[in-house]
């Protein structure tokens, strides 16, 4: 097994279990414990796992490429996207964060007369030739893994904007709030939330009860959550108790 393939397999096993011992990793992978220690050191260094005595714990969503993430829960994301699209009327302005779920939202918006603001290269490429869409692309440092712009230039642009609605997704939702897998992504999303009058979270049900590396904001910063029917009942009640509008796609 090639180095990258092995480390990806190790990360997937840790993510699946939450915590896994070094002995169990060696048994499942057929790799020596000394080699696995080096793999865990590397994964700890890029903040995907936390090494512990005798094993490793998963600490957040893997920062994999947009192409790899786009195949996960695609049907649910498309349903969520269509549901959100139905609430966006002609002539509106909407701010779309980067991500596979918001890319599906953008796809569902094709054909409408809209102003779309985004920092996502994938969304910009999708909509640039779409009739009726006035596209505003926010510049900055282009993050190679996620295909979104980040950094001071983006933050400056967002500080000068005020939009009626923002749609975004996250890596995890817990009682403590929303989480994402990259500190730079989190900083940009906070600025987007501040720039929006109405904040819409588009998230598939797998993300509830799951944390990621970086805290983003409390759950009550969101006005509306759109998810699929797999959301646990206790989470439905928690969201409703907070006064957040919940829509099941």
From TrEMBL:
Gene3D superfamilies with a match to the protein in the record: Winged helix-like DNA-binding domain superfamily/Winged helix DNA-binding domain (1.10.10.10)
Keywords, sorted A to Z: DNA-binding, Repressor, Transcription, Transcription regulation
Keyword Transmembrane helix: no
InterPro entries membership: Carb_Metab_HTH_regulators, DeoR-like_C, DeoR_HTH, NagB/RpiA_transferase-like, Tscrpt_reg_HTH_DeoR_CS, WH-like_DNA-bd_sf, WH_DNA-bd_sf
PROSITE patterns to which the protein is assigned, alphabetical: HTH_DEOR_1, HTH_DEOR_2
GO molecular function: DNA binding; DNA-binding transcription factor activity
HTH deoR-type domain sequence ranges: 3-58
Name used for this protein in its record: Regulatory protein DeoR
Lineage: superkingdom: Bacteria
Taxonomic source organism: Planctopirus limnophila (strain ATCC 43296 / DSM 3776 / IFAM 1008 / Mu 290)
């Amino acid at each position: 097994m090639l180095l990258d393939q092995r480390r990806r397999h190790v990360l997937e096993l840790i993510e699946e279990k939450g915590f896994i011992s070094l002995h169990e990793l060696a048994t499942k992978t057929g790799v020596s414990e000394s080699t696995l220690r080096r793999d865990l050191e590397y994964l700890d260094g890029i903040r995907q796992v936390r090494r512990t005595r005798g094993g490793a714990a998963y600490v957040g969503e893997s920062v994999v490429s947009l192409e790899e993430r786009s195949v996960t829960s695609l049907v649910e994301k498309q349903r969520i996207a269509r549901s959100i699209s139905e609430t966006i009327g002609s002539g509106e302005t909407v701010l779309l964060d980067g991500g596979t779920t918001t890319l599906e939202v953008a796809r569902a918006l094709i054909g409408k007369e809209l102003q779309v603001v985004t920092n996502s290269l994938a969304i910009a490429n999708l909509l640039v030739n779409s009739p009726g869409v006035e596209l505003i692309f926010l510049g900055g440092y282009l993050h190679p893994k996620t295909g979104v712009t980040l950094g001071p230039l983006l933050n400056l642009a967002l500080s000068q904007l005020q939009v009626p609605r923002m749609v975004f997704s996250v890596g995890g939702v817990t009682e403590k709030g929303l989480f994402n897998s990259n500190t730079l992504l989190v900083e940009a999303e906070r600025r987007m939330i501040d720039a929006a009058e109405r904040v819409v979270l588009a998230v598939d049900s797998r993300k509830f009860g799951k944390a990621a590396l970086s805290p983003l904001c409390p759950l009550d910063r969101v006005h509306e959550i759109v998810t699929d029917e797999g959301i646990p009942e206790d989470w439905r009640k928690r969201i409703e108790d907070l006064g957040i509008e919940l829509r099941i796609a």
